[in-house]
From TrEMBL:
Domain of life: Eukaryota
The protein, known as: CNH domain-containing protein
PANTHER family: CNH DOMAIN CONTAINING, VACUOLAR SORTING PROTEIN 3
Residue span(s) of domain Vacuolar sorting protein 39/Transforming growth factor beta receptor-associated zinc finger: 915-955
Record GO biological process: autophagy; endosomal vesicle fusion
Domain (Vacuolar sorting protein 39/Transforming growth factor beta receptor-associated) ranges: 515-596
CNH domain: residues covered: 40-308
A GO CC term attached to the entry: cytoplasm
UniProt xrefs under Pfam families: CNH (PF00780), Vps39_1 (PF10366), zf-Vps39_C (PF10367)
InterPro entries (alphabetical): CNH_dom, Vam6/VPS39/TRAP1, VPS39/TGF_beta_rcpt-assoc_1, VPS39/TGFA1_Znf
Length: 1127
């Protein structure tokens, strides 16, 4: 079924002329462009005559067609079947009576028949596309050869001189040379069914049409493929080269199929109303003519866009259409038996205007997109058309579609819509561009006027339609006329949508101010409060002067406050929030059900009251919150303190946040803030002082004392309140959290007493006596204990901890902190005699003896014990204390003797070093001046360097030739330092393996300080272990308690024994009777495991000496050593 034509003018006539054919109809037509201002038109008749017309056109005069001349081609009266101008050589090839004739382009010379070519049924010239880069056929320099040439080795030829000739069922490819002869390049036969009737040659592909069907032959691979067959009942085959896309249109009756060079369909079919007599191409359209009717179809869509009659006077006959057969052809010629007419394509702009005048907006946009895709329209023109369509739709009251087109336009300025929103003159009047586009719509006017004029036009159209007159108003408005309110709301909503989208563009400052300000106007017109507040509180370019009166008169004070705050007018914004908070508290603020979420229609008065109360709270809290956000960033101290009071009345947390905010550049003066805080707002003052002390690290004693006194007062009040309400409202005051009547919690998460205790412990800058005077008569015992401790009243602290609070662990920790034995004894006395008629605290006393018995004198403990104390409670503890005492005594003796042994060893090593001998011969030289020593005096340093006496006097006694200073960098020889080195290594290993308190990864270094007295007498001397990682030495210098200390003593004994045995082997120790050794070793087993270790070590070495047949004096030396070590 043929497509329904659309009313669009694509072709327009530019010139026509009558034809004098002597009653011989036109058979063929061809065009040849001579220049930009002249085109030749060749007409071939059925009687064999060739007519030449000239079409001239210029900008100064209208186009005109003039007759030039005529010439007879064959003289036989047979028709001229086809004409092929060769403009590049000034020739014309004509097919007539089965022969090819060659003429000059001006028809000045008679026709010349091309020899050896006859029986031609179809003839075409090769069309070479712009994308094709080569031609396969050779260019012959010597004409006249009729043999086929090798295709693969061919050189490029001029495609304008290559022809395909159909001769029955044979296809011949030939080249026209300058002499006027044809050189046959290739003959193809036996592959086509039927007589060749049509030909089209594009690049390497030949499309052949015969009675049986259409074929495509590839000149590269020499393959022929049947595209499709034609039924017997179909009309004669007809094909048309589409030069613009390098494709071919194949006709099957009235249906046209477009195929590519491989014979594949590439788009939809073109369905003509009737089988066309002739087919032409212009731009993106295909033209078919029949019976004096021309139809214009779009190649891609297949739509018939234009249909018109060729001859207006009703003349008929065969019509032929012809184009220029190139990619950029702009002319089209249609001939009848009596007239030749020239047409040209209407410009895209004129087509668009024509559609817009008819208000075919969808077709306009389709046409614009089509022209842009074809490169006939720029992107700027596309934006221009979208804007034009938008304005036309706007005045037709289609606001949504209008804004859609505005948004698609990239060149349209937002200021073009300002006159529709605000009446002129205004601040932005001069920014509005005076662009009337194509003058198709009225000038801008406010939306109210646009709607009124549109409604008037609708009413007029309804009246005219009733009278039978067609109008351009939509049928939708005819059937359902809209109301003014609905149209105005729709217009404002879509204007809002457009301005919102424009905010994301890169606008100038003035245009941005207009967009945001007018957007606020539109929000207010629809009462979109949330959008107004969102715009005002975000980054915007609104002009406050334009909106101030508007928002104030309409009652949108919140929006105005947000706007003031965003523009830096903090004082005005805070003034509005203060007014709003006062109005809310007076009950003048109410939020409707749509805002509170209450949707029940029948609510009782109690529910209404609760909702109203919640709304009041919500409004006051919001006002305070927004005001606090402004003040948090403000460094204006006067402004902050001015509004601090009413914010604190609503929410103390917000007031505190204002004071301690880190967002401001300059902090507030603490003295001014403290003076401005209401004394009734104690928690605010406490929190501010806490911030000053803990976060700002203030060391002002005034702030510390004031904070401590405030906490103490609050603690007293809280304690008294707890006592008074303990029975009646138990549990109401949980964790000191004050709850207001509206459910607001305290600003602190911890109790006031906990905060007081932490502060009293951590700070040393407050006046403890002032605080103590305040709470001395109260029951805040722990707080008083902390204060007494600060003042140094140890006895009072112990009394409170042990007797008032009965916190034994705290009392013992305090004794450890004091560190004196008398403190432990004082605590024991308090447990045994609490005074005030209280019973002795025997369990606490036993615990104290068990944990800290080593710090107590046993004799004093026995003297202090009460006769009434049950013996079984203290017997185990006293026994352990006595054993530990004896254990420490014996350990001290062992350490003393070990120290003596090491001192003897060091003295012996020094003596050996000083008594060394050195051999000097004739070759010996001074290590400093390198002079021979001979019989000179010399000196030797500990590093074995030898110098003459002269160099020795110059060097000094402490510095050798090598530069080493022995006073600062002592030299330890291996044989003399083996005991110390072995001791350090074994001590580190043993402590790592056996100590339960030392991490395995700890890096230990050992420093030996030999004690002259037992460690319990002089706790500051002895072995100190210095640990460099996550382990510290206690105050006494001993590590890990008794167990670790005993390990140290054991290792010392082992090292001493090993060293002495080595000396004993060299006979350096006096002898002693062996039978005294064994009883001695056995008696040492009573000294914990230390004695056992010494005994086992001594016996081991004695057995080794006996097995080695050593002298008896050596054994005596071992016994003497062990005797000295142990006693």
């Amino acid at each position: 079924m043929a497509a329904k034509p659309k009313s669009r003018s694509v072709l327009e006539p530019i010139a026509d002329s009558a034809i004098d054919t002597s009653n011989s109809p036109i058979k063929s037509v061809s065009l040849s462009k001579l220049s930009d201002t002249e085109t030749l038109i060749y007409l071939g008749t059925l009687s064999g005559t060739l007519l030449l017309y000239s079409l001239k056109y210029s900008q100064d005069s209208p186009p005109g067609i003039s007759f030039l001349r005529r010439v007879s081609v064959s003289g036989t009266g047979n028709p001229v079947n086809s004409i092929h101008p060769l403009a590049h050589i000034g020739k014309v090839v004509v097919l007539c009576d089965g022969f090819l004739f060659l003429l000059d382009d001006k028809l000045l010379q008679p026709a010349k028949r091309i020899s050896l070519i006859k029986g031609v049924t179809a003839f075409c010239r090769k069309f070479r596309s712009q994308k094709f880069g080569y031609n396969p056929f050779p260019q012959r320099s010597n004409g006249g050869s009729y043999t086929n040439h090798n295709y693969d080795n061919a050189n490029n030829s001029n495609s304008n001189s290559l022809f395909a000739i159909g001769m029955g069922k044979k296809l011949v490819l030939a080249e026209l040379i300058l002499s006027g002869s044809l050189v046959i390049l290739k003959e193809i036969q036996g592959i086509f069914d039927g007589i060749i009737m049509n030909l089209a040659w594009i690049d390497d592909s030949l499309v052949v049409g015969s009675k049986t069907g259409y074929y495509v032959y590839n000149c590269v691979n020499k393959q022929c493929v049947l595209i499709f067959s034609l039924p017997d009942s179909s009309s004669s085959p007809q094909l048309k080269l589409l030069a613009r896309e390098c494709r071919v249109l194949l006709m099957v009756d009235n249906v046209g199929i477009i195929v590519d060079t491989e014979g594949q369909p590439v788009s939809g079919s073109l369905v003509f109303k009737e089988v066309p007599d002739s087919i032409g191409e212009i731009g993106s359209y295909v033209v078919g003519v029949r019976n004096a009717m021309a139809e214009l179809y779009h190649k891609k869509t297949g739509d018939c866009v234009q249909r018109f009659r060729v001859v207006g006077d009703g003349g008929g006959g065969l019509c032929i259409v012809k184009d220029e057969e190139n990619e950029s052809g702009k002319l089209l010629v249609i001939t009848t038996c009596s007239k030749v007419m020239c047409y040209r394509k209407v410009s895209g702009e004129e087509q668009i205007k024509d559609l817009l005048r008819k208000k075919n907006f969808k077709e306009t946009i389709s046409l614009v997109e089509e022209l842009q895709s074809e490169g006939e329209l720029t992107k700027e023109m596309l934006s221009f058309v979208h804007a034009q369509v938008g304005f036309l739709l706007l005045f037709d009251l289609h606001f949504e579609e209008a804004v859609d087109h505005f948004l698609l336009s990239e060149t349209m300025q937002p200021s073009e819509l300002f006159p529709f929103i605000m009446r002129d003159p205004n601040r932005w009047t001069l920014l509005v561009p005076r662009n009337r586009y194509w003058g198709l719509h009225p000038p801008p006017t406010p939306l109210e006027n646009v709607i009124d004029d549109g409604l008037t036009a609708i009413q007029r159209a309804v009246f005219l339609k009733k009278a039978g007159v067609e109008t351009a108003v939509d049928d939708e408005f005819h059937l359902n006329p809209p109301s003014r309110a609905d149209l105005l709301e729709s217009a404002i909503q879509n204007m809002i949508r457009y301005l919102q989208a424009c905010r994301d563009r890169d606008l100038t400052q003035s245009v941005g101010e207009g967009v945001d300000t007018l957007l606020m106007y539109l929000y207010r017109a629809l009462n979109r409060v949330d959008d107004m507040e969102r715009l005002a509180s975000s980054e915007n370019s609104c002009v406050v002067e334009e909106l101030e009166t508007l928002l104030n008169d309409s009652g949108h004070l919140r929006t105005l406050a947000f706007l003031y705050a965003r523009k830096g007018m903090s004082a005005k914004a805070l003034g509005i929030w203060r007014i709003l908070a006062r109005n809310y508290s007076q009950g003048s603020y109410y939020r409707g059900p749509e805002e509170t979420g209450s949707t029940t229609e029948n609510e009782d008065s109690t529910a209404d009251l609760k909702v109203s109360s919640r709304n009041v709270i919500f409004g006051r809290e919001t006002a305070a919150l927004e005001a606090s956000r402004i003040l948090e960033e403000s460094s204006d101290q006067e402004l902050v303190l001015q509004h601090l009071g009413w914010i604190a009345d609503i929410n103390q947390m917000l007031a505190v946040q204002v004071l301690i905010s880190e967002k401001r550049t300059d902090q507030l003066s603490p003295d001014e803030v403290i003076a401005a805080i209401d004394l009734k707002k104690v928690e605010i003052l406490q929190r501010y002082l806490q911030w000053l002390i803990e976060e700002q690290y203030s060391d002002d004693t005034r702030f510390h004392t004031t904070y401590a006194l405030l906490l103490a007062k609050s603690a007293l009040e809280t304690y008294e309140m707890e006592l008074s309400t303990q029975n009646s409202v138990a549990g109401m005051l949980k964790n000191e959290m004050y709850v207001s009547e509206f459910g607001e919690d305290s600003i602190f998460e911890t109790s006031v007493r906990e905060r007081l205790q932490i502060f009293l412990e951590s700070s040393d800058l407050y006046d403890a006596e002032d605080v103590l005077d305040l709470i001395e008569e109260s029951e805040l015992w722990l707080e008083k204990a902390i204060l007494y401790r600060k003042l140094g009243h140890e006895t009072l602290v112990l009394q409170i901890l042990a007797l008032k609070l009965e916190d034994c662990e705290a009392a013992e920790r305090y004794c450890v902190e004091i560190g004196r034995p008398d403190a432990y004894m004082q605590l024991l006395e308090m447990y045994l005699d609490p005074k005030d008629g209280r019973e002795p605290m025997f369990k606490a006393a036993v615990r104290h003896l068990h944990n800290h018995g080593e710090m107590l004198d046993p004799l004093q403990v026995l003297e202090r014990l009460s006769p009434n104390m049950p013996l079984q409670l203290a017997s185990d503890t006293i026994l352990k204390m006595l054993r530990a005492r004896l254990h420490h005594h014996r350990q001290g003796q062992i350490v003393h003797n070990l120290s003596r042994a090491l001192d003897v060893d060091a003295s012996l090593a020094r003596l050996e070093e000083r008594s060394r001998h050195v051999l000097i011969n004739d070759e010996s030289v001074c290590n400093s001046c390198h002079a021979r020593l001979g019989t000179k005096l010399f000196a030797m340093y500990p590093d074995d360097t030898i110098v003459c006496y002269k160099c020795f006097r110059r060097q000094g006694e402490s510095t050798s030739v090598t530069g080493r200073n022995f006073e600062k960098d002592p030299l330890a020889k291996p044989e003399h330092s083996s005991s110390l080195t072995a001791f350090s290594a074994e001590l580190c290993t043993l402590i790592h393996l056996s100590s339960p308190v030392l991490p395995a990864s700890a890096d230990i270094s050992v420093l030996l300080l030999l004690p002259s007295r037992p460690p319990w007498r002089r706790p500051s001397t002895g072995f100190r272990i210095i640990v460099s990682k996550d382990f510290s030495v206690d105050q006494t210098g001993w590590v890990g308690g008794d167990g670790c200390y005993n390990q140290i003593l054991y290792i010392m004994a082992k090292v001493a024994c090993s060293t002495t045995i080595s000396k004993l082997k060299n006979g350096l120790v006096s002898s002693m009777v062996f039978d005294k050794v064994v009883p001695l070793l056995e008696s040492l087993s009573e000294v914990h495991y230390l004695g056992v270790g010494c005994c086992q070590l001594g016996l081991k070495h004695i057995n080794l000496l006996q097995k080695g047949n050593r002298p008896k004096a050596t054994v005596h030396g071992v016994a003497h050593l062990l005797y000295n070590l142990c006693y």
